[in-house]
Specification:
Oligomer: single chain
Distance between the termini: 58 Å
Structural class: alpha/beta
Shape: globular
Strand order of the largest sheet: 5-4-3-6-7-8
Radius of gyration: 21 Å
Order of helices and strands: EHHEEHEHEHEHEHEHEEHHHEEEH
Length: about 400
């Protein structure tokens, strides 16, 4: 790398309630610390980082530059220590997700599994000069080995949406895929965090829970439906509508991960922002239908793969930070919950070494009349999706 440039990359969001600056780790890349301190401000403006984290990282580089004033070059050693497995790594979401995970300084080993075409993906990624070791696993016979001693399993496997399809249309195919993969997780890395991306998430997470229960290894604190994309979209659309800096915007999204079950709480947006009734309806509808927007724009060529990979990488980095001892990690996720009368519900949670540490129940207090009505309206549909997932596993067991 030329002495005139600095490469800064992190997937460390701060979606916190009164958060403190979160701990950051930098890549083991050779760089000029003085120039890094000067240029990091620009780099961070478009990163995953919240403004508190950005300030902390800028200060860190400034101090490093001062201490290294007698040396123009120095190295930051990686402290990678976690093993991640991506099941469905050769797919439209899996490939860009694998690239982003390969760039994380918290990952020491990256296992890529798929039923075909994963060897080339792994070979390609292995040429990237970041610390994690990439391994490939193909087909059912190698699934178990892809999960040995893994800390976090991410499951994007399944078929994508096509024009005219709802997430519910994907159920029959993806339900079987998730069931099979989670059975393997239960047998080989039962203590791992499990991140479910495969749609319909409203049903596949309950499917995973039932499989884990039958295996006797279910820990509700470690099973997550990844709804981060709804938050990412909400933040982006609100920032655009209100001409705000993206780095400042944080909109909690609750409910589920399909259609009207997606409920952005615009009244809880940070920074505090006033919306007209028309803006609330317009933004809510666009956030709920963001996936359809992409499917239609791709005209049959795919669904939301890049933005989903970005969102999944953000949640994964949050999980790794929590595993690494960061005590100030908050994200929205679809998990087993007692915040409502539904067994599973997406809300903002605090993450820790053992998974979900706390639910941020205050997000559900003081809702607007519009949000209250929308919350009640989504419950029947979400309840039906949950029951469909549970019933799928129970019927499979009965006919086995």
């Amino acid at each position: 790398m030329a002495a005139t440039s600095a490469t800064i990359f992190s997937i460390c969001p701060t979606t916190s309630a009164g958060s403190k600056p979160s701990r950051q780790k930098a890549f083991g890349l050779k760089f000029n610390s003085r120039r890094a301190a000067e240029s990091v401000r620009c780099e961070l403006e478009t990163s995953f980082l919240g403004k508190e984290s950005s300030a902390a990282l800028r200060q860190s580089f400034a101090l490093k530059a001062q201490k290294e004033n007698k040396r123009s070059w120095n190295y930051i050693q990686p402290q990678a220590s976690y093993k991640v497995s991506i099941l469905g790594a050769a797919g439209g979401i899996g490939q860009p997700l694998a690239l982003l995970v390969k760039m994380s300084p918290l990952v020491s080993a990256l296992n890529l599994y798929d039923i075909a075409n994963v060897k080339g993906v792994a070979a390609d990624l292995s040429h990237c000069n970041t610390p994690s070791k990439v391994s490939d696993f193909t087909g059912a016979s190698e699934l178990a080995n892809s999960l040995k001693d893994v800390n976090v399993v991410v499951i994007p496997a399944g078929v994508p949406r096509k024009p005219g399809m709802t997430r519910d249309d994907l159920f029959n195919i993806n339900a079987s895929i998730v069931r099979t993969l989670v059975e393997a997780v239960a047998d080989n890395c039962p203590d791992a965090f499990i991140h479910i991306i495969s749609n319909p998430v409203n049903s596949t997470v309950p499917i995973a829970a039932e499989v884990l229960k039958k295996k006797g290894v279910y820990d509700p604190k470690k099973l997550f439906g990844i709804t981060t994309l709804d938050v990412v979209r909400a933040n982006t659309f609100v920032a655009q509508k209100k001409n705000l800096r993206l780095i400042d915007v944080d909109v909690p999204v609750i409910g589920g991960h399909a259609g009207i079950t997606i409920l952005p709480l615009l009244s809880k947006a940070k920074p505090s922002t006033t919306f007209t009734d028309e803006e609330v309806q317009e933004l809510t509808a666009r956030i709920q239908n963001g996936g359809t927007e992409v499917v239609e724009a791709k005209a049959g060529a795919g669904s939301a793969t890049l933005s989903m990979a970005y969102a999944a990488a953000r949640f994964l980095e949050s999980s790794l930070r929590a595993l690494d001892g960061d005590s100030d990690v908050y994200e929205c996720a679809y998990v087993q919950s007692d915040l409502t009368d539904l067994p599973f519900f997406a809300s903002r949670v605090k993450l820790g070494r053992n998974g979900v540490e706390a639910f941020i129940s205050s997000d559900l207090h003081g809702l607007t009349e519009y949000e209250e009505k929308a919350l009640e309206a989504l419950k029947p549909e979400l309840k039906a999706s949950i029951e469909k997932g549970i019933s799928f596993v129970q019927k499979e067991a009965a006919t086995a």
